[in-house]
Amino acid sequence: MRRFTRIALYAVYAAGCLSLAPAAVAADAWPGRPIRLVVPFAPGGGVDNVARALAARLTTGLGQSVVVENRIGAGGMIGTDYVAKADPDGYTLLMGTQTSLAVAPILTPSVPIDPRKAFAGAGLVASSPLLLVSNPGFAPRDVQQLIALAKQKPGEVNYGSGGIGTTPHMAGELLSLSAGIRMTHVAYKGEQPALTDVAGNQIPLMFSNLVAALPLVQSGKLRALAISTLQRSPALPDVPTVAESGVKGFDAATWFGVVAPKATPRAVVQRLGREIDAALKDPALRRTLESQGLAVQWKDPGEFDAYIAGEYEKWQRVIREAKISTQ
Q: How far apart, in whole angstroms, are the C-alpha atoms of residue 9 and residue 273?
């Protein structure tokens, strides 16, 4: 009887080893052919630039071509959905962002993706703070004065953005909710037209991507009120953060990271994470990213999974409480 029990145990153990074998073989053999890194936005934009710089360095590290493929539409959801449904073999990846992984999935119910369930994070690559800027003629000169004016005149202070669901729009709504004020959002077809109108005093203020607003601040056409992240920016070390200005815990940024379909073998995801980490230690790549106004911000696969979940839940709350809709 004991002999049969031992045989049964050996059989179970062998079956378990066999069930793990395909994943182990796949991980050992990966990558055996070129890899696609899907960018869900147009060529030439900020996300595309980050993806192409990273892909060139990963090509060297992995010994296989990493080819950037643009699949645009629906606020980034066309490309995001494509990767979510791709074979989980490590050969189709997504350059994800705060918009495509934490905002657009909530604002686009026609493409039902929960990024926490659809993707495995390979690594956070970089982030860019936003800059709260105003027309120099706008009376408030800091965040506390802005909050005081908005409380005095609910709904009368307008702020711009490049469109509904963009990071600058979401930052404006987060500020309103966090500070207990009500401002009116004015959506433009792109960030540059909104910045032009702030400089021209058509609207008083907006959150803007740092790299876009910095030249206008340096020329005196805009006033910098605050940085959106928890740390100050080396580009403007004298400008306080929103959190330092009295809105405790305020944190909003544009971020970029690589994800794979959720069922991708963990060993493949971990290998990819190590290669991304190595790439980000390359001084040439760091200089390229920093020249675009980005800060290298590495998080490993497990940390990035947690970060995506936290961002999704934060912006889901903002969208619900601010009643934001694209309809």
A: 36
